[in-house]
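User: I'm writing a tutorial on reading structure tokens. Could you give me a worked example: one chain, its sequence, then its tokens, then a sentence or two explaining what the tokens reveal?
Assistant: Sure. Here is the example chain.
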Amino acid sequence: MSFDEKLVKEVITEFINDNPEEKGLDAAFIEICRFLSDNPDRLSWRTKNKPSLTDKNGLKALAKKFFDGFRRSDFPAQPETVPDEMVSIVMQYVYGYSSEECERIKIEHQYSMCAENCVGSLLERYLDSVLREKGWYWCCGDFIKAIDFISKDENQKWLVLQIKNRDNTENSSSSAIRNGTTIQKWFRSFSKKGGTNWENLPELMQGYQLSEDNFIAFVKQYLTKEKSSLDK
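And here are its predicted structure tokens:
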């Protein structure tokens, strides 16, 4: 069965709202479904029975993942793991830290890790905030394999992009998924030499004032708003 845009529009009526930050999400979801219809092997699902793009229940499952993914907060989580005391022993005997300094560092390291874990998601959210109206669609919800953004070129050929926060944040299995595909990769920052990579954005993402300064401004605004909401 061919792609049924009318059915997709019918299904997502119960998921959309009038939040200005979500303007255009319905169109994004429609295009993501169209992409999956053309590329069914890209659908990633935890169970063997993958949702179908040709029935309402399957589309509802995908829509729920998509809209829940967008609405999920990317505010850093509170640390939940218990630090390994042996790390403090090593730091004291190798680097000369006092036991009091190690206690402080343990707490700071936990918070630093929580903050680091959310930067990649914030990066994708920032790109989406600028590019959604430019014809780039964020594949939030984690149900498209190895792809974070999709669009089409002037010949209506699919463009697919994988986003990484740093040039060293990809493991071999993730890299292998891209082998033999047309998936492009872009990363924001260099892990060894420092600096950022905004000037090397894919050509069709250029010209929209995407930059490190604007990313920083977006993150500050987003986290302030989320913190205010959590404090209520």
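What the tokens reveal: Residues 99-131 form the longest helix (33 residues). The helical segments are 5-12, 25-38, 56-71, 85-95, 99-131, 172-178, 212-231.
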